[in-house]
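Dear colleague,

Thank you for sharing your sequence with our group. We've completed the structure prediction you requested, and as agreed, I am returning the results in plain text so they can be pasted directly into your records. Please verify that the sequence below matches your submission; if there's any discrepancy, let me know and we will rerun it promptly.
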Amino acid sequence: MSGHDTSSKRLISLTGGNLRNQHLYITGHHDFFPAECFGASSAQKGTGQPLTLIVDGLLEPVETDIAASSGNGQPRSFFRKRAWVARFFEHHNLHEGSIVAIERLDRFTYRVYPSGGRTIGHRGPDQPRTNAMHGEGQAKSGFGDTAFIKNRNEPLHRWVPWIAGFSGAFVEEVFHSALRADPSTVTVLDPFAGVGTTLVEGLMRGYNVVGFDINPYAVLASDLKVSCARHSVKPLADAIGRLEDLAQEHRHGQTRPTSKPPSGFKSRVPFFSPPVERDVLLLQDFISEQRNAFVKKALKVALGAVMVGFSNYSYEPSLSTRAAAGKPLVERADVFAVFRDKLREIEADVRFLQRHMRSFKHRPDAKVYQRSYLQGADVLPAASVDVLVTSPPYLNNYHYVRNTRPQLYWLGLTEGNGQLKQLENDNFGCFWQTVRGGPAIELNFDLPELDEVLNAIRSRHCDKGVYGGAGWANYAAKYFNDCYRFFEVTRRVMKANGLVVVVIGNNIVQGVHIETDRFLAEIAGLHGFRLQQMHCVRKKRTGSSIVDSSVRAGVMTKRVELHETAVELRAPK
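Please find the predicted structure tokens below.
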């Protein structure tokens, strides 16, 4: 009964039946417990070896086995002893959709506790929504911190680290503030989907979700997340089992891989040390052997998620050599174990999502498009979107294409620099390097105050040529022109009075402070969007190290706090 999965934690989404009947479903998790713990249908006929459950909020551990069904003799869907469950639910105020974690401490000892402190998927009856969709109710006073780091322990979100994404908890707050309609009638859009935080949160609540992103690696990850509920998890479990055997076969380093490092991929220092590269290439062989498309996609996502961790590079936050960050090179690493653990995490979360989605009477639609939203949103019907939650690239010249080059090349998602150049051209705004030497770029719309800011940037450091203010003014003007185009496109796809929440940061460019969030709201107003509230969701950092960076170089006349704002808007009625 104890299957091959030795991961240390399982996640369970509570149903209404759990709350009414005061039990905790362990359906699909029997492989997580040792075979000795399964007893007969009644205690009089014989019990299994007891498990010790250390339950958060209860003074004494619970000793229980798992009974068999009197009908077919198979293990039942809950622990034999259940009196403790009601006290556990009440102590933590758990409700439908709450997540409970069961963590293995040793062979017969487990810890039971609420996971993450937040609800996934359903709203409890004792938690009324504020600011109902399409304007009913009162506005919410504010949204919480957007920091992506909060995703690191959340189901599905934890698969792939992502620079400058926002947290699932933040998206949850937006949904709770806005949505009261039948989930099957709601469509959620993220035009800059990244690795799918908005899409996953929407899907978990039964909403139809649609996302856009130009980065093939981001699309690979987000598409896997929103499509995995439709696939059997058994082939993935089988692949993980075969991977265990493969690791043993290659442990002594004698096997020669047939895969080769990707042609065209260059790095200042060897990206992997020779022993690590050999193991990565063996994993490439393993991935190429897979015939199941879902399994192959999961394996690629897992490798992309962990590869930088055992490379000679790191995110600081931009991708740079470990040596430049004062870190030693990674001469050796247990590549197979790191990859296997990530796959086990993915497998556990897929099982969790599939159980969770069975609580809905409908199957939500989910689609991720690998294309620019600004050029490709015509695939969406007019007035089809209820809620848009997104965070476009900031005005800080962060180069998403360069920072995912290892994944794009090593996962076979690019054919070379020509394709990467196209990704740069399709980026929201642009990269400073692509417009710094060109003719002056003017705004495509009338906003005099923003014009004044751009002129102030243009006048800075004229003696520095392309490194002076003129190039940076071009960069900023192109960015705001794309903001204008964004709201032009969004007006067509949003339903009347639909909710739009855009997370954006203010900026300092060449020593000039740009209130990017305020200008974004004013540009939205040019298209008829109504500003509801500016939520300051994250104070970032201050200091000369920020002001004097290459993007922000210049003399500041006053202290400026860099922050992030959730700009809350309503579409025209």
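Summary note from our side: Residues 469-493 form the longest helix (25 residues).

Kind regards,
the structure core
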